[in-house]
Every structure is written in structure tokens, then in C-alpha cells.
């Protein structure tokens, strides 16, 4: 089923993001996580695309297996990195042949060691070009999502220009957006208000991940509420307490977001289930997520 149709439901969307494992142990961990989170009956799950397309085959395999073996709607990430238009067309053919009809279209990060993104020969330069390419090739038979950045893309310090770029992505055919993670909900609400004023009407799903350290937020370039930053600093020598604080704050974020009309929550799970299950239980108790059947 197309995610855009699932998002048309009145119920909030709950979705989980996984990444392809690099070791047998990590693969076993992912299987356990998928089994545990399957019980929560997510609206959909997504699987990331490794740097430079390094996990291309694993991404396609995992997405296809989830779709076939669990019955959960699955979405494959797809980036422009290292791929020509012919490469991208071939990947789309493989996905659709496997029954996958949902794609998250991303430009992707520059290869490790490079500061600037350079398109592959015969490739694409921007996320909006990838959205346009997918839409032209597959028409309305595929659902295309895109990324959004409440605090601006790391390579674009001009928030107005960043929003213009996002509008191009939506105009090219993106059906919905998922935000980069954030820890201050005011950033999300301000971003949504600006997006709507710019004529962006598609669902904007907030991306949430529990903090595990102060450094984690700094690595992602996301701002922190002052009180949360102070508490993380206070607890920096206590990993267990920091983890509990991160889960508690993420739970509050989700309750606030869903209570005030966000279309759902996209959990960056890091291939772990414990924190996500705890947060999901809290929002379900408050009547903000579908009850497990």
C-alpha cells in the first residue's frame, strides 16, 4: 500500500527507521528488533541507504523481506550518491519487482573525506531532481517521500533558501516529508508554520530519537532546550541516567507533537527496540497511538 494513502487515515502514523547491519551479530540484533517492533503494528518502516550506496543490495533485500515476510509496509531510502540515472532506474526496477512501492528520495551525504557533493557521471545533483526522476519513471504508482530540516540543512545556513529548496522537492512530486531529528519541539512547529506559509501542504512527519549524550545532539547539529542541556551536562558521568532522561524527553516530545496535531512520529531506532517500545507504550496509554490488535 502507498504510504500517502496510509497517511490519509485519521489515526497518527507511527513508523520506524532501520539501517542495514554490517556484521552477523548486528544482523541478528536487527531481526530481533524487527520482531519486537512488529507487535506494535507500525504504519510503515524504512531502511536507510549506506554511504555511497555501500549497502544497496542489503537495503533492497531487507525492505523486500520486511514487506514479504511481516506484512508491514516498507520504504527504501534511495540517494543520488554514486549512481547514474541508469543505475537509479535499475534500482527502482528491482524495488518495484519486489513489491516495494514506497521510496524516500534523498540527495545523500558527500562520500567520506569529501566536503562537497559531486554528482556521479550521468547522475543527479539534488533531492528534488531525484524526486522528479522517480515520478517521471514510475508515475503515480509509487509513493515518494522526502527529507525536511526544521533547523535548516547543514550545508545551507539560509533558512529561506532551504525552504525554497524544500518547496522544489514537493513541487517535483514528493507526497510527504520526514524531518531530521530535533530535540526542541518549538523548532518543529515554527518550521511547519513557515512551510505552510510557503505553500507546502503535504504531511510533515517529525523524526524523533532519544538522546544518549550531550555530544550526540552536537554531532547532529540539533539545538537543545536550555533545561535539557543543563541536565545532560549534570548527568554526563552517568550513562544510565542519561539514557533514562533521553527516553523521558523523547516521550514528552511525542506526547506534545501528537496532542497538537502532528501527523505521526518517525522513530530513528538505531536498530534497537527498548526505548522505542517504552515511548510507544506511553503515547498509546494517552490514546495518541493505535492500540495493538
Task: Give the helix level as a range of percent.
Answer: 40-55%
CATH arch. level architecture: Alpha-Beta Barrel
Topology as H/E string? Answer: HEHEHEHEHEHEHEEHHHEH
CATH class membership:
Alpha Beta
Question: What would you call the structural class?
Answer: alpha/beta
Compute the number of helices.
11
Number of domains: 1
Defining traits:
alpha/beta, 293 residues, nine-stranded parallel sheet, 46% helix, TIM Barrel, 14% strand
Account of the protein in words:
- The chain is an alpha/beta fold.
- It has one domain: TIM Barrel (Alpha-Beta Barrel), CATH 3.20.20.
- It has helices spanning 3-6, 24-38, 56-70, 85-97, 127-138, 159-171, 185-197, 214-220, 226-234, 239-259, 274-285; strands at 13-18, 44-47, 74-79, 102-106, 143-148, 176-179, 204-205, 207-208, 264-268.
- Strand 2, helix 3 (56-70) and strand 3 (74-79) form a beta-alpha-beta unit.
- The longest helix has 21 residues, at 239-259.
- The model has no long low-confidence stretch (mean pLDDT 92).
Structure summarized in a few sentences:
With 293 residues, the chain is an alpha/beta fold. The chain has eleven helices and nine strands. The mean pLDDT is 92.
Give the helix/strand layout.
Elements: H1 3-6, E1 13-18, H2 24-38, E2 44-47, H3 56-70, E3 74-79, H4 85-97, E4 102-106, H5 127-138, E5 143-148, H6 159-171, E6 176-179, H7 185-197, E7 204-205, E8 207-208, H8 214-220, H9 226-234, H10 239-259, E9 264-268, H11 274-285
Amino acid at each position: 500500500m502507498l504510504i500517502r494513502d496510509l497517511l490519509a487515515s485519521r489515526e497518527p502514523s507511527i513508523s520506524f527507521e532501520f539501517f542495514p547491519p554490517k556484521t552477523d551479530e548486528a544482523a541478528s540484533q536487527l531481526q530481533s528488533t524487527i520482531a519486537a517492533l512488529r507487535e506494535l503494528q507500525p504504519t510503515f518502516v524504512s531502511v536507510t541507504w549506506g554511504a555511497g550506496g555501500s549497502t544497496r543490495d542489503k537495503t533492497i533485500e531487507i525492505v523486500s523481506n520486511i514487506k514479504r515476510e511481516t506484512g508491514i509496509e516498507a520504504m527504501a531510502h534511495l540517494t543520488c550518491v554514486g549512481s547514474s540515472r541508469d543505475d537509479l532506474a535499475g534500482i527502482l526496477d528491482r524495488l518495484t519487482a519486489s513489491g516495494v512501492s514506497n521510496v524516500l528520495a534523498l540527495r545523500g551525504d558527500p562520500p567520506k573525506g569529501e566536503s562537497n557533493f559531486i554528482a556521479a557521471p550521468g547522475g543527479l545533483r539534488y533531492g528534488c531532481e531525484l524526486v522528479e526522476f522517480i515520478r517521471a519513471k514510475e508515475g503515480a504508482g509509487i509513493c515518494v517521500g522526502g527529507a525536511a530540516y526544521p533547523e535548516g540543512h547543514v550545508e545551507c545556513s539560509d533558512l529561506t533558501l532551504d525552504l525554497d529548496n524544500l518547496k522544489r522537492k514537493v513541487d517535483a512530486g514528493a507526497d510527504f516529508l520526514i524531518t531530521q531529528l530535533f530535540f526542541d519541539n518549538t523548532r518543529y512547529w515554527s518550521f511547519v508554520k513557515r512551510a505552510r506559509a510557503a505553500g507546502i501542504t503535504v504531511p510533515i512527519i517529525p523524526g524523533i530519537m532519544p538522546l544518549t549524550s550531550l555530544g550526540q545532539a552536537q554531532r547532529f547539529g540539533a539545538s537543545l532546550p536550555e533545561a535539557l542541556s543543563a541536565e545532560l551536562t549534570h548527568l554526563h558521568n552517568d550513562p544510565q541516567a542519561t539514557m533514562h532522561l533521553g527516553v523521558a524527553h523523547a516521550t514528552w516530545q511525542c506526547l506534545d507533537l501528537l496532542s497538537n496535531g502532528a501527523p505521526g512520529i518517525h522513530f530513528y531506532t538505531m536498530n534497537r527496540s527498548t526505548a522505542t517500545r517504552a515511548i510507544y507504550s506511553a503515547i498509546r496509554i494517552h490514546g495518541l497511538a493505535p492500540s495493538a490488535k
